[in-house]
């Protein structure tokens, strides 16, 4: 017969996110001018006791003296604590109920507030070990029951000795006194619980870390509320992705690492090991080789619009979803283009440079309004179309050329060929995407086809334009000016120099790929992309993925969701359904979408299933990835 298992769980900062006495102070010291400094002293006493640096009993006495609390504060405190139960504890109520005979709350806090909270989660009242308050006749809290071993130094050890549990004892807590139980030989394992606080002195001693209760349950093969502990999902964010994204992923419970610049293929091959979610911007290349080094990758987030830097097919074949932010920086690029069109038309960059060295050059020569001038937009996608609207609002006449049929906005006129557009436009602005076929679509011929004295802008991708041809056209005077934001080679970080033949040419605005670099755009992107990825991880939704078949799924309720990604060859769906039939699984809903390379099948099944089902699903021929959600 297997030995019994006992779980000793701490209360403050473990079962709940907070230290209850700090919260009590918030209530009892309300209106006290010294409140902040007293609370600080209370906090320091708590931290010092929890880190094992001072006498616990002495600290507790001092804290209660400082708090000047009254029993009337207790119902309010319980209300506050109710909302502060740790997320993973909240999630795993079923485990706490199912194992209630074996779960003990052992705390140096007070039963008066612990009992009403933990019993709501199925903890048995007789399994709660904690201190009790001493009150005076007026209900003031003046101390604690000094007979209780938990009020003493090494109190938890003394209590465990009294309990004399026979079986495996697991301790889960954030404090040094929790660790001491294991040190005294009274527990088999101590798990430092770091979901709410992480204490260095405790971590240093702990053999096991539990960033959540899920992780503890996962490691010990106990029933969990979710299919996989979120803290096992590691996120790598490159290229200065906005901190909002870091916050969003951390709030979800993921482990996040950030790196300011882009990584080379070689560096990324090394860093990608064990990464589940990779976040990049326009500079990092996610190649087939990188994917071959990825062992846990589920999703790549392009925290920008362009995805040409990612091998989308290789991702698809590896079952890796790719998401981007298709609209978040659109307006920023357009505003920059508008500003540059006007600046170039008036020769302002050169005039400003001259002023900085003391030259006053007041003249109207070569300076024009943009009103009534013809703007040719190449690539009438989201950016091109938005530029069209704003340019018309300034009185420009808009022409556009796109390789696919597009909705004509306002009075914009469609050109059937690029050449037609080039021959008409006074300004040509490039807004095509960075697909490989667009390499060097602008070269000597295209510049030659433009009007004499035209102005050229490229805020799309660097490889789209032959720089030498552009330089020639500017030097020869064919072009009157240019604005270039993107380059065939861009520095990976701000520490690398920028080298280009375009440097030093008159009436040329050079910018370091900042079309989308505004606060608004970066915050929008940092909100958008993590939500798409987390939705995919939590529910299987691939809506708006740039490489996967898009499925928008209903919310998962009282069901298991089987997520199967396979090569798109005939017969796989039939095989999946045979497996389900063989395992007598009741299908509640099934969703399938395929594209050229993969099939994506989601099957919601009723709760009862056998482990064999998981093995059989993984064994279906042509399976790329299989996972299960509940
Ligand atoms: N400078 C910067 O910081 C930024 C640059 N970008 C670049 O701008 C590009 C465009 O962005 P969106 O408008 O949002 O993309 P989009 O996909 O909505 O539009 C691109 C359009 O270009 C068209 N197109 C592609 N190749 C073409 C060609 N050879 N000739 C004519 N039309 C062609 C497509 O059919 C599509 O309509 C992105 O792919 C990205 O590379 C995007 C954001 C910021
Ligand atoms: O959104 C895009 O495609 C961009 O080019 C912007 O790239 P970035 O995020 O500034 O590296």
UniProtKB/TrEMBL annotation:
Database matches in CDD domains: ACT_3PGDH (cd04901), PGDH_3 (cd12176)
UniProt-listed Enzyme Commission number(s): 1.1.1.399, 1.1.1.95
Claim: Oxidoreductase is one of the keywords in the record: yes
Domain ACT residue range list: 561-630
Pathway: Amino-acid biosynthesis; L-serine biosynthesis; L-serine from 3-phospho-D-glycerate: step 1/3
Keyword tags: NAD, Oxidoreductase
Pfam families per record: 2-Hacid_dh, 2-Hacid_dh_C, ACT_AHAS_ss
Catalytic activity field: (2R)-3-phosphoglycerate + NAD(+) = 3-phosphooxypyruvate + NADH + H(+); (R)-2-hydroxyglutarate + NAD(+) = 2-oxoglutarate + NADH + H(+)
Source domain of life: Bacteria
InterPro entries: ACT-like_dom_sf (IPR045865), ACT_dom (IPR002912), AHAS_small-like_ACT (IPR054480), D-iso_2-hydroxyacid_DH_PdxB (IPR050418), D-isomer_2_OHA_DH_cat_dom (IPR006139), D-isomer_DH_CS (IPR029753), D-isomer_DH_CS1 (IPR029752), D-isomer_DH_NAD-bd (IPR006140)
Broad EC category: oxidoreductase
Transmembrane portions of the chain: none
GO MF annotations, alphabetized: phosphoglycerate dehydrogenase activity
Functional description taken from the UniProt entry: Catalyzes the reversible oxidation of 3-phospho-D-glycerate to 3-phosphonooxypyruvate, the first step of the phosphorylated L-serine biosynthesis pathway. Also catalyzes the reversible oxidation of 2-hydroxyglutarate to 2-oxoglutarate.
PANTHER family linked: D-ISOMER SPECIFIC 2-HYDROXYACID DEHYDROGENASE CATALYTIC DOMAIN-CONTAINING PROTEIN-RELATED (PTHR43761:SF1), D-ISOMER SPECIFIC 2-HYDROXYACID DEHYDROGENASE FAMILY PROTEIN (AFU_ORTHOLOGUE AFUA_1G13630) (PTHR43761)
UniProt record similarity statement: Belongs to the D-isomer specific 2-hydroxyacid dehydrogenase family.
Listed name of the protein: D-3-phosphoglycerate dehydrogenase
């Amino acid at each position: 017969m297997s030995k019994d298992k006992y779980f000793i769980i701490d209360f403050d900062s473990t079962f709940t996110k907070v230290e209850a006495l700090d919260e009590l102070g918030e209530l009892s010291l309300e209106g006290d001018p010294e409140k902040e400094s007293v609370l600080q002293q209370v906090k320091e006493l708590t931290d010092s006791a929890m880190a094992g640096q001072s006498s616990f009993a002495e600290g507790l006495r001092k804290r209660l003296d400082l708090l000047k609390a009254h029993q009337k504060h207790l119902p309010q405190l319980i209300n506050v604590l109710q909302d502060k139960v740790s997320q993973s504890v909240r999630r795993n109520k079923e485990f706490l109920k199912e194992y209630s005979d074996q779960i003990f709350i052992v705390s140096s806090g007070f039963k008066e507030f612990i009992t009403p909270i933990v019993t709501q989660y199925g903890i048995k009242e007789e399994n709660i070990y904690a201190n009790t308050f001493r009150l005076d006749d007026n209900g003031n809290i003046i101390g604690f029951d000094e007979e209780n071993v938990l009020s003493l130094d090494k109190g938890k050890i003394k209590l465990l000795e009294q309990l004399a549990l026979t079986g495996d004892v697991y301790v889960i807590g954030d404090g040094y006194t929790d660790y001491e139980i294991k040190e005294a030989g009274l527990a088999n394992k101590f798990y430092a619980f770091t979901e709410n606080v992480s204490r260095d002195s405790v971590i240093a001693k702990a053999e096991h870390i539990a960033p959540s209760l899920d992780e503890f349950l996962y490691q010990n093969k106990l029933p969990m509320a979710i299919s996989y502990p979120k803290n096992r999902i590691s996120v790598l964010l490159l290229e200065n992705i906005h901190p909002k994204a870091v916050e969003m992923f951390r709030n979800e419970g993921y482990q996040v690492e950030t790196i300011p610049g882009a990584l080379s293929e070689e560096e990324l091959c090394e860093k990608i090991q064990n990464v589940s979610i990779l976040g990049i911007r326009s500079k990092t290349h996610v190649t087939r080789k990188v994917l071959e080094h990825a062992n846990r990758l589920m999703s790549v987030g392009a925290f920008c619009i362009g995805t040409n830097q990612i091998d989308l097919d290789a991702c698809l074949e590896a079952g890796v979803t790719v998401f981007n932010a298709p609209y978040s920086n659109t307006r920023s690029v357009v505003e920059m283009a508008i500003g540059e069109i006007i600046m170039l038309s008036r020769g302002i960059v050169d005039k400003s440079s001259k002023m900085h060295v003391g030259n006053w050059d007041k003249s109207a020569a070569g300076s024009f309004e943009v009103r009534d001038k013809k703007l040719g937009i190449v690539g009438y996608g989201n950016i091109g179309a938005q530029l069209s609207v704003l340019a018309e609002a300034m009185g420009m006449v808009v022409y556009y050329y796109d390789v696919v049929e597009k909705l004509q906005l306002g009075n914009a006129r469609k050109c059937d060929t690029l050449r037609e557009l080039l021959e008409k436009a006074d300004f040509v602005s490039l807004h095509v995407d960075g697909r490989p076929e667009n390499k060097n679509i602008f070269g000597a011929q295209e510049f030659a086809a433009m009007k004499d004295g035209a102005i050229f802008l490229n805020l799309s991708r660097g490889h789209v334009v032959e720089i030498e041809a552009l330089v020639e056209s500017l030097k020869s005077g064919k072009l009157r000016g240019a604005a270039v934001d993107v380059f065939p080679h861009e520095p990976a970080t701000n520490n690398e120099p920028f080298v280009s033949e375009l440097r030093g040419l008159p009436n040329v605005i050079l910018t370091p790929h900042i079309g989308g670099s505004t606060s608004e755009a970066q915050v929008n992107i940092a909100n958008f992309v993590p939500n798409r990825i987390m939705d995919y991880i939590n529910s299987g939704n691939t809506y708006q993925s740039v490489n996967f078949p898009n499925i928008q799924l209903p919310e998962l309720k009282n069901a298991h969701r089987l997520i199967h990604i396979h090569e798109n060859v005939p017969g796989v769906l039939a095989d999946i359904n045979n497996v389900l039939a063989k395992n007598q699984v009741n299908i509640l809903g099934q969703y399938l979408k395929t594209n050229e390379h993969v099939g994506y099948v989601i099957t919601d099944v009723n709760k009862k299933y056998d482990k064999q089902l998981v093995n059989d699903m993984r064994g279906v021929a042509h399976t790329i990835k299989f996972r299960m959600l509940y």
